[in-house]
Amino acid sequence: MSGKARLPLRIINSVAPIRICDNGGWTDTWFAGHGCIFNIAVYPYAEVQIDVRPWDGNEERVVIHAENYGERYALKAEQPGWDRHPLLEAAIDYMKVPRDLAFVVNIFSEAPVGASTGTSAAVTVALIGALDRLTPGRMTPHEVAAAAQIIETERLGQQCGIQDQICSAFGGINYIEMFQYPHASVSPIQVPNSVWWELERRLVLVYLGKSHSSSKVHETVIRELENCGPDNPKLTALRRTAGQSRDALYAGDFEALGRAMIANTEAQARLNDKLIGAEAHRIIAIAREYGALGWKVNGAGGDGGSLTLLCGSHSDRKRAMIRALESENPLFRHIPIYLSRQGLRVWEDHQEPARRRVTETSD
Length: 363
Hints:
Elements: E1 2-4, E2 10-23, E3 35-54, E4 62-66, E5 71-74, H1 86-95, E6 101-109, H2 119-131, H3 141-155, H4 163-170, E7 173-180, E8 183-188, H5 193-202, E9 203-207, H6 216-228, H7 233-250, H8 254-271, H9 278-289, E10 294-297, E11 306-310, H10 315-328, E12 333-335, E13 338-339, E14 345-348, H11 352-356, E15 360-362
Parallel strand pairs: 4-6
Antiparallel strand pairs: 1-15, 2-3, 2-14, 3-6, 3-7, 3-13, 4-5, 7-8, 9-11, 9-12, 10-11
């Protein structure tokens, strides 16, 4: 028995890093008006792979494979609104891929969903970057980050700052100055390899074991902040930690960086004490016992999510701390991370054209 094996015309790959240690978070929002944010891009990446071929008009034109969810489904062009994964579907709609192309989009991330590490932003950035290969022109990192943020805020009507998308698009360690929402300048923090490697060795990401989701606590905080204006002392305290983090890293002063992380977490708690949950407090207590220099509740804070910990000089104490954390609560999980020097990366499988010449199969 034989037949034609239809292979993809093109295979496009993209990856984008997630974000940790977002000191100054909450000040990158519309209600803050202006802000300063320090953050660090890390592996594990969000991954996107797109199989592209000419559309013959008879098959499904766009298929989404959300691998982490075990879902594969076709988009219905005539169906109004969004279906199972609004963020992915809105990004595809926004990019306006030529109608003569059909494609299958595969999305995957090693980072847990709802870990407060900007995973949704990383997925959107990676997806936009890959789809950009199918449209005229090429988007800059700034343009990719802006498009990803517009999709969340304007297309989906969600509360969303700008820093997660910038971190995924640019990579590295960044100091972000939002001079007027949503416009910002990005200053990569360049440090010697010895400082970069030492920071990477000292950082630990701990997942609390349950997904973070926006809640009534966040709605309460936003209502208070939008009514108090951009010069609210609570926002000023958060902005200050971004500059402190930048200066500490330039000086190679990890103790000062740890103090900035702690100051940011305490400033988050002053927005609302429920932004630092009981599980986060327990992780902080254990980290302190093992000599950690700093801790930052990632993202906006609240129930679930993750923490970034900055450890001291000795690796054996870091490993002992991780064992103690995972023994304390079976839901607590250490997520291995590596600093990502690059942000969004997009490339194509250049071996595919050679393989396409082999079209006959038999069994």
